[in-house]
Amino acid sequence: MSFFDKIFNGKEENQEKESFWKKIESEEGLKNAIENSFNHRIAIFKHSTSCFISKTVLRNFEKEIENLDQKVELYFLDLLKYRSISNKIAEDLGVRHESPQLIVIENGKAINSASHQHISADQII
User: What NCBIfam families has UniProt attached to this entry (predicted)?
Assistant: First the structure.
C-alpha cells in the first residue's frame, strides 16, 4: 500500500474493514436480511458514500464493532446506488429515512434506530 493510500484511506484497508458487511443491493437482498432477523438480531447501516459525516460515523462504528464480543449480522446499504431500497425499508419497517442511519431488526420488526452521532454498537446488543 502506498504512502498516500495509507493517509487517504486506501482500497486495501477498506476491503479489510468491509469484510464483516453483507451488502444489500436488491429488494431480494433486503427480503433475505429481514428473514434472517427471525433467527437472530440484525442491523442495517444506511450510508451516503458522498457525505463526509456519514463516512466518519461509519468509520467510528466499524471500530466499535471490531471490539464487540457479540457478533451480529451487519448489512450495508449504499444510499446513492440503492435509494429505492432505502425507501422500501422506511415504508415496510415504519422507520423514517435518515443518513447515516443504523436500524436494528428482530423478528421482522425495527426495534431500534439511530442516526448521525447517536449510532453506536450499544444499540445492537
Answer: B_thiol_YtxJ
Distance separating alpha carbons of residues 108 and 12, to the nearest angstrom: 35
Q: 66 vs 116, which has greater pLDDT?
A: 116
Q: What is the pTM of this model?
A: 0.84
Beta partners for 112?
Answer: 104
HSE-CB at 37 with a 13 A cutoff on CA atoms is 22
Residue 47: HSE in the Cβ half-sphere, 13 Å Cα cutoff:
25
Strand partners, 42: 73, 105
* pLDDT 10s digits, 53-84: 999 999 999 999 887 777 789 999 999 999 99
Instruction: Find cell 457525505 and name the residue.
Output: 51
Domains of the chain: 18-123 (3.40.30.10)
